[in-house]
Structure formats: C-alpha cells, structure tokens
Amino acid sequence: MSTFLQCPLKFRIETMQKLPGGTNAAAVAGTTMHAALEKLMNLPGPERTVERLAAEVEQALVEVRDDPDYLSLTKEQLKDFDAKCRRVTPRAFDMLPLQTLDVHSTELRLEVELDGWILRGIIDLIEDRDNFGLIVWDYKSGKAPMKQYEAKATLGLEFYAVMVNIELGVMPAGVGLLYLDKKVSIKRVPSVQSVKATERKILAVRDSIVKACETDSFKTSTSALCDYCACKPYCPAHGGDPDDVPVSVRLSS
User: Fold this and answer.
1) Mapping DSSP to helix (H, G, I), strand (E, B) and coil, where does residue 112 land?
2) Tens-digit pLDDT string for the chain (253 aa)
3) Which end of the chain is more exposed for a tag (fewer CB within 10 A), N or C?
4) Model confidence, pTM
C-alpha cells in the first residue's frame, strides 16, 4: 500500500513484476536483532538482563551465518555487521522497561480479513499495561525517518491498530515504532475513528490498484527519492520502459 501511494509504477515493477532488489545488510541485521529480542522477551522479567540479551545476540549472530540473505552479502556489507548488532540491540533497554514490562505476545503473526482482502503482518511486541490496555511496539534497527518522510512509518502504525482491533477485538491503547540506533520513537494513540478511517483508506487504495491492473495504467510519481529507486532505469519519466523489466510473475496472474 505504501509503495502504491508513493508511486503506482514502482508498485507495478517491484510488487507485480518482482524486480530483484538485492539483499539489504540493514534488513538482515534487523532480523538478527529481532531474533535476540524475541528470545529475551519470552523470558520471565527478572531474567531479562543486558547480559542475557548480549548472549542472545551472540547466538543470533551464529545462527544467521546459515541464512541465504546473509550469505549473499558482500565483505564490504558485512564489515560492521556484528558490531552494529552488538551496539544497537541493547538500546532497547533505554527505550522500554524490559524487566518489568508485562508481555502479552511477541512476534505475533496476524492474518485478518477486511472486506474479503487479507492483511498480514508480524508484530514484534505487545505490552499488556494494567488499567491502560495493550500497547503495540515495533523494533526498527535502521534510522528514523525525517519528518517529511514519516507518512510511510505512521501508515504502518495505522495498519497495526486495524489488525489488532480485528484479530483481538480490542482497540490498542497505543502503537509505537522504536528506532533503536538513535533511540527515537514514533507513537500514536488510535481511536475508533482513526481505525475506521484507515480501513477506508486501505479499501480505497485496493480499489485503485484493481483499477490500475484492469486498465494497465500505473502512473509515475517523481521525487527526490527517484535517485535511490531500483526502478529508475525502467521508468518512462527517466527515459526507461517498464516492459524491459525481467518479469518473473506475469501481470495477468
């Protein structure tokens, strides 16, 4: 959804035509950190120590060595990999009271239906706060977005609120992103009105995607982000042709 809103042509090329984007070292590092934090948060509160998390990070660094995404990284990409995981992961203790936090669930896989469409996601941590409600937390290992680019991040928060409300039948009392590297958080307090508005937004974008598929009309939206986009060589706005993309999944499927 966020890709389509950013640029419909980017959605066609990346999501439908499956343009290979290569493996991102930051994404693999994020997976490694998530694995360590998940194991930590499944322990009783008193056992959630900085020392125990450090041990879980070391174990995660061993296990990731067999991951195909890790094996595809270059020596240059791996140069600071272990050091970053060891440096950034413990910062979760600076952002949440991990030892006293009451865990409702960790790495919760959701698959919910909205008007016949399936929304899927994995929520890193749900805190059950007495006399307040459920708080949804999502760890991020990368950098926090600048203010002008926060829309994509907050869209994710809106999605979490919708999915938790449908799956658990409870309006979360809060949703938040925790950018561990710089210890920055983005938080929102959902309401019945905001969740319903997000549901309408999801369905409106769905209808736009269906229409674009039916008419094979995917507009280009140019911005400063184009210089960092893997789709640029195939974009008409930059002299390219989207039909030159090496297609792995036919549009008709």
Assistant:
1) strand
2) 888 998 999 999 988 888 876 568 888 999 999 999 999 999 999 999 999 999 999 999 999 999 998 998 999 989 999 999 999 999 999 999 999 999 999 999 999 999 999 999 999 999 999 889 999 999 998 888 888 778 778 888 999 999 999 999 999 999 999 999 999 999 999 999 999 999 999 999 999 999 999 999 999 999 888 988 889 999 999 999 998 887 554 444 4
3) C
4) 0.86
**Tokens at 129, concatenated:** 């706060």
Integer distance in angstroms from the first to the last C-alpha of the chain?
Answer: 19
Which residues, other chains included, contact 243 with Cβ-Cβ below 8 Å and sequence gap of 6+? none
- CB neighbour class for 7 (10 Å; exposed up to 12, middle 13-18, buried from 19): buried
Residue with tokens 């006399």: 131
How many CA atoms does the CB half-sphere of 49 hold within 13 Å? 5
The answer to whether 176 and 139 have CB atoms below 8 angstroms apart is: no
